[in-house]
């Protein structure tokens, strides 16, 4: 080793030491950079990241409340819940939905109906929701799917509460049904500010009690604060706010009466509304034909939907609150009362009844051809003299009629606790002005008043309105708001909130006037158009038949061979017992002909059932189907 | 006799390196228990690998420098051949061709190259010790670029960059001119700029690599995709605060928000549960290890020893820095484990083999003194 080499080595060692020092500085500076990054994250920005971490790990999982149960006045369950498994698909998680469904059907039976229903649900909802493709799986099906579930991402089995209507079609319009929340419902819920309370809930009431008492039936959604992992899977529960179950409802409806009436209607179309006049509580609310509300619960099959929707019988129409019909002669007792209250001279006179009334250039025909000769006020109700009421209407004038009828909620909603009630039409010059566009059509012609007097013309009311007015009359002017729900029961505390039967108003009618009208209606039952139907009744009822013209006959004689759908509607209003009524009702049988033919027998049997607890022993023919030919006696007294 | 055995078997072990390594390993075992959600099988596995790795370290520490010098070229050649074999018939897993089947097991040749390349380059400069010219640096660069290129093709950006840096460290310690280093730095910066600001960076890097860089600059661009790791990592670390949430109490960790939380992202668990204080302790332990490595390099008796020890030490540092930098969101996500802490046997064995090499270098010096 030479000197030079050693010197060289020394220089190299020195150079290397410099490099080591440089490396050490490099290491130190980069570690200092790391430390300052840690300091920034963990000391300076700690709060921010703490919040982010909290948000990351806590998720609120809604716990839907169980829906309240609906019972009738005697505790019969009309709507309840049961738990069942459903097979649900999240469409947004599927690459090929058709293929997934195809694959699924090799494991679990999926019918064409299920597929149609699923498609309809998809059209109505947002894609990221999970939708049931099959409901009410058997345990075996659940097990079969569980073994294959790994093949189906985005498909799951859920235990859900289902709504069930054990009575099926009975009272379907009244009870209504629940259906899946669709986009439109969601908007509404948002608008009402209750959307949050519906998180985790798939269904809400669509019609009937289910809809109008949605708020009470639904309850309050609970929440579970759960720790979740990045995949959204719940790891453990931190806190739980239990849901508040929906309130149970007890209806004022007597479901046995309801069923009796529905059976009486059989295949015929129409409606019956029975009210307890002392409270306004509905005892029955029939709209025939009905439908099976259970069809709607898991989303209705489009085929069923089409059938219901396009049927000429309109089974989805709630005739009780939305069916508007001219009241016909059932309007007369109210006309009579209005005349008495207005002290119009005709009420004190006896007129000559030739079987028609000439007003201006028009001849108004009486349904009792030939007339009765002389006709008094009291008699006119019993025999339903059109001629008398034509003249009465002219004497009173349309304004007086409209003013009085408005106090009975004719032309206005009764305020029954069901949504979508129609107001009907109470004709008046004001109404006509609003209703029509051109000055010629807006003008009220005095001849139009004549028809109004016998419940024809523009007159158009719902069975609910007719029953409501009848109940008010039966109650001698004390008016209650009709309501279907009697009690709202908190399922936890058991607190019962009674829907208080507070009178809406009390009419200023003179008692003698009311009693005089009611005597006339008793006469209808005793000897008039209702006599045949009420033969042998052990109570005294007060009623009035009515016939609503569907097709104007223009003076020609009533033709029995006329097409069934063009036949007159058969009306009957009644309350009983007349002195101290416990029930008031209105019945309409569409195209049933004379009121005495179809509607009165139904009313009789409903009253017997309600008052005596059993049906009357009547000949079968009168009890159910439409008699082909009206008896001579009935023809003699008109409708 | 006992003295002889002591000299032969125990004395080569550097007590400082062993102490710091053991401390990090104990810390990492405690951490793994939490990161794995108390998976005892993983703990047992880790301890098994620790024993194997420590044994390998001990064996290497007992190997003389002369033997290491003789092994340098064959190790490099074998490593290179294996890399070529991988490129031709390697197993594809997770979209990358990194593994080679040998009988019953499969190996990752890039792991071997991590040590073989610095050994080879140290041997090369050692060979021309007295007359190092610029052409030697050029040839060294070629020796370096071939394996790095092969690994980058697999693709495995992280490992290739690490191996490239280990080669570069040898060049650095061998006296690569400061001017050239400055030039390289400028080039590197320019390349980084191009990669991050020029859309067609796909031509240079794989698409996913581009995405990682772009995502690192703005993780919110892809919060559920590539940015997810960075966001969750920084949230975990940041939410740890100064003292941490405590062992086993990291919510981010235990709720599965941290991906690869026992391997590449284990530092997020550490930062969350032990906080800034824990991070500082880990940094200090790493600094002590690196410092000891640099001292060994400085005191090494041969150029081979100096270069090898210096390169291994700085490579170890690079591991630590890149991993912590990536988990805390200042570097793009590359698949590099946190040295001695991440779960994974191969990485631990190769790291402790590196420490064995350091000890061997140190041991030779002791022998020379005595």
Detailed description of the structure:
The complex is a heterodimer of chains A (639) and B (370). The N and C termini of chain A lie far apart (143 Å). In chain A, strands 2, 3, 4, 5, 10, 18 and 19 form a seven-stranded mixed β-sheet that branches. Chain A is elongated. With 639 residues, chain A is α+β, with helices and mostly antiparallel strands. In chain A, a hairpin with a 6-residue loop joins strand 18 and strand 19 (496-498). In chain A, 38% of the residues lie in helices and 20% in strands. Chain A folds into two domains: 62-251, Penicillin-binding protein 2a (Domain 2); 256-553 and 560-612, Beta-lactamase. With 370 residues, chain B is mainly alpha-helical. Chain B has 14 helices and three strands. A three-stranded antiparallel β-sheet of chain B has the order 1-2-3. In chain B, strand 2 and strand 3 form a beta hairpin. In chain B, helix 4 crosses helix 6 and helix 10 crosses helix 12. Chain B is globular and about 60 Å long. In chain B, 49% of the residues are buried. The model of chain B has no long low-confidence stretch (mean pLDDT 84).
Task: Give the tags.
A: alpha+beta; 7-stranded mixed sheet; 25 helices; elongated; disordered C terminus; B: 370 residues; mainly alpha; 3-stranded antiparallel sheet; cell wall biogenesis/degradation (chain A); protease (chain A); penicillin binding (chain A); Penicillin-binding_protein_2 (chain A); membrane (chain A)
How do the strands and helices of this protein lay out in sequence?
The complex is a heterodimer of chains A (639) and B (370).
Chain A: H1 3-44, H2 46-57, E1 58-63, E2 70-71, E3 77-89, H3 97-104, H4 112-124, E4 131-134, H5 139-148, E5 155-164, H6 172-175, E6 177-180, H7 183-191, E7 203-207, H8 208-212, H9 214-218, E8 222-228, E9 234-241, E10 248-251, H10 255-265, E11 270-275, E12 282-288, H11 294-297, H12 302-310, H13 319-322, H14 332-341, E13 350-353, E14 356-359, E15 362-365, E16 373-376, H15 377-383, H16 386-396, H17 398-407, H18 429-435, H19 439-442, H20 446-453, H21 463-474, E17 478-480, E18 485-489, E19 496-498, E20 503-506, H22 511-526, E21 542-548, E22 569-576, E23 583-589, H23 599-612, H24 620-623, H25 632-636
Parallel strand pairs in A: 2-10
Antiparallel strand pairs in A: 1-8, 2-3, 3-4, 3-5, 6-7, 8-9, 10-18, 11-12, 11-23, 13-16, 14-15, 17-20, 18-19, 21-22, 22-23
Helix pairs in contact in A: 10-23, 14-16, 14-17, 14-22, 15-22, 16-20
Chain B: H1 2-10, H2 15-35, H3 40-61, H4 65-89, E1 91-93, E2 96-102, E3 105-107, H5 109-127, H6 134-153, H7 157-173, H8 178-197, H9 207-217, H10 227-240, H11 251-254, H12 266-299, H13 303-327, H14 345-369
Antiparallel strand pairs in B: 1-2, 2-3
Helix pairs in contact in B: 2-3, 2-12, 3-14, 4-5, 4-6, 5-6, 5-7, 5-13, 5-14, 6-7, 7-13, 10-12, 12-13, 12-14, 13-14
């Amino acid at each position: 080793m030479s000197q030079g080499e050693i010197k060289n080595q020394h220089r190299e060692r020195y150079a290397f030491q410099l490099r080591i020092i440089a490396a050490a500085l490099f290491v130190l500076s980069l570690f200092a950079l790391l430390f300052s990054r840690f300091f920034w994250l963990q000391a300076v920005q700690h709060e921010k990241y703490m919040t982010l971490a909290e948000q990351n790990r806590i998720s609120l999982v809604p716990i839907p409340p169980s829906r309240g149960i609906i019972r009738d006045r005697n505790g019969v369950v009309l709507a309840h819940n049961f738990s069942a498994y459903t097979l649900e698909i999240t469409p947004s998680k599927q690459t090929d939905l058709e293929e997934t469904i195809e694959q699924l059907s090799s494991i679990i039976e999926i019918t064409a109906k299920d597929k149609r229903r699923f498609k309809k649900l998809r059209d109505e909802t947002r894609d990221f929701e999970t939708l049931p493709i099959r409901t009410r799986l058997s345990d075996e099906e659940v097990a079969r799917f569980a073994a294959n579930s790994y093949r189906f991402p985005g498909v799951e089995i859920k235990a859900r509460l289902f709504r069930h209507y054990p009575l099926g079609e009975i009272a379907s319009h009244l009870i209504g049904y629940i259906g899946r929340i669709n986009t439109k419902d969601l908007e509404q819920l948002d608008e009402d500010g209750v959307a949050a309370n519906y998180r985790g809930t798939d269904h809400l009431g669509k019609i009937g009690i289910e809809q109008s008492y949605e708020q009470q039936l639904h309850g309050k959604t609970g929440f579970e604060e759960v720790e979740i992992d990045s995949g959204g899977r719940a790891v453990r529960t931190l806190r739980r706010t239990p849901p508040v179950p929906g309130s149970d409802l007890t209806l004022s409806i007597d479901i046995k009466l309801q069923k009796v009436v529905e059976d009486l209607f059989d295949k015929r179309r129409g409606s019956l509304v029975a009210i307890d006049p002392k409270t306004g509580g509905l005892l029955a609310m029939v709209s025939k034909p009905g439908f099976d509300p259970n069809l709607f619960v898991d989303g209705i099959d489009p085929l069923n939907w089409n059938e219901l929707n396009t049927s000429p019988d309109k089974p989805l129409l709630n005739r009780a609150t939305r069916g508007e019909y001219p009241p016909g002669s059932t309007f007369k007792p109210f006309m009579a009362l209005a005349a008495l209250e207005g002290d119009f001279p005709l009420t004190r006179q006896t007129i000559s009844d030739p079987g028609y009334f000439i007003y201006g250039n028009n001849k108004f025909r009486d349904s009792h051809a030939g007339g009765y000769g002389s006709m008094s006020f009291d008699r006119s109700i019993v025999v339903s003299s059109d001629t008398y009421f034509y003249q009465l209407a002219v004497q009173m004038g349309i304004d007086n009629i409209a003013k009085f009828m408005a106090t009975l909620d004719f032309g206005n909603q009764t305020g029954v606790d069901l949504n979508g009630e129609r107001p009907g039409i109470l004709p008046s010059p004001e109404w006509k002005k609003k209703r029509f566009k051109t000055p010629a059509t807006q003008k009220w012609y005095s001849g139009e008043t004549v028809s109004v007097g016998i419940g024809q013309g523009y007159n158009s009311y719902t069975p609910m309105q007719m029953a409501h007015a009848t109940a008010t009359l039966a109650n001698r002017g004390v008016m209650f708001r009709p309501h279907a729900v009697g009690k709202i029961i908190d399922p936890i505390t058991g607190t019962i909130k009674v829907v208080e039967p507070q009178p809406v108003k009390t009419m200023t009618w003179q008692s003698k006037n009311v009693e005089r009208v009611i005597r006339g209606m008793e006469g209808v039952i005793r000897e008039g158009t209702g006599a045949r139907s009420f033969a042998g009744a052990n109570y005294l009822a007060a009623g009035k038949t009515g016939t609503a013209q569907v097709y104007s006959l223009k003076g020609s004689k009533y033709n029995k061979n006329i097409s069934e759908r063009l036949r007159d509607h058969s009306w009957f209003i009644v309350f009983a017992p007349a002195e101290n009524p416990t029930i008031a009702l209105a019945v309409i049988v569409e195209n049933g002909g004379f009121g005495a033919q179809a509607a009165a027998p139904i009313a009789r049997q409903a009253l017997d059932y309600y008052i005596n607890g059993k049906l009357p022993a009547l000949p079968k023919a009168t009890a159910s189907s439409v008699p082909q030919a009206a008896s001579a006696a009935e023809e003699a007294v008109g409708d | 006799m006992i003295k002889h055995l002591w000299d032969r078997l125990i004395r080569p072990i550097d007590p400082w390196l062993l102490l710091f390594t053991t401390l990090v390993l104990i810390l990492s075992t405690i951490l793994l228990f939490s990161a794995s959600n108390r998976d005892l099988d993983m703990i047992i596995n880790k301890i098994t690998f620790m024993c194997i790795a420590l044994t390998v370290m001990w064996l290497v520490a007992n190997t003389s420098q002369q033997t290491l010098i003789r092994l340098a070229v064959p190790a490099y050649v074998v490593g290179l051949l294996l890399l070529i074999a991988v490129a031709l018939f390697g197993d594809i897993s997770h979209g990358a061709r990194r593994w080679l089947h040998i009988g019953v097991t499969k190996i990752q040749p890039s792991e071997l190259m991590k040590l073989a390349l610095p050994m080879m380059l140290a041997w090369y400069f050692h060979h021309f010790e007295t007359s190092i010219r610029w052409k030697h640096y050029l040839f060294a660069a070629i020796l370096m670029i071939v394996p790095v290129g092969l690994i980058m093709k697999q693709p495995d950006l992280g490992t290739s960059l690490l191996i490239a840096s280990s080669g570069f460290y040898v060049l650095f310690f061998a006296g690569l001119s400061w001017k050239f280093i400055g030039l390289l730095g400028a080039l590197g910066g320019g390349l980084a700029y191009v990669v991050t600001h020029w859309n067609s960076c796909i031509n240079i890097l794989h698409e996913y690599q581009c995405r990682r860089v772009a995502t690192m600059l703005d993780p919110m661009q892809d919060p559920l995709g590539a940015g997810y790791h960075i966001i969750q990592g920084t949230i975990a670390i940041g939410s740890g605060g100064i003292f941490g949430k405590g062992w086993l109490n990291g919510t981010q960790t235990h709720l599965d928000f941290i991906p690869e939380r026992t391997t590449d992202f284990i530092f997020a668990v550490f930062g969350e549960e032990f906080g800034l204080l824990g991070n500082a302790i880990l940094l200090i332990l790493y600094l002590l290890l690196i410092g000891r490595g640099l001292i060994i390099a400085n005191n090494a008796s041969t150029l081979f020893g100096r270069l090898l020890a210096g390169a291994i030490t700085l490579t170890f540092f690079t591991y630590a820095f890149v991993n912590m930098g990536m988990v805390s969101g200042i570097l793009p996500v590359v698949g590099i484990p946190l040295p001695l802490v991440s779960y994974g046997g191969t990485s631990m064995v190769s790291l402790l083999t590196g420490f064995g090499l350091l000890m061997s270098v140190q041991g030779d010096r002791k022998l020379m003194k005595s």
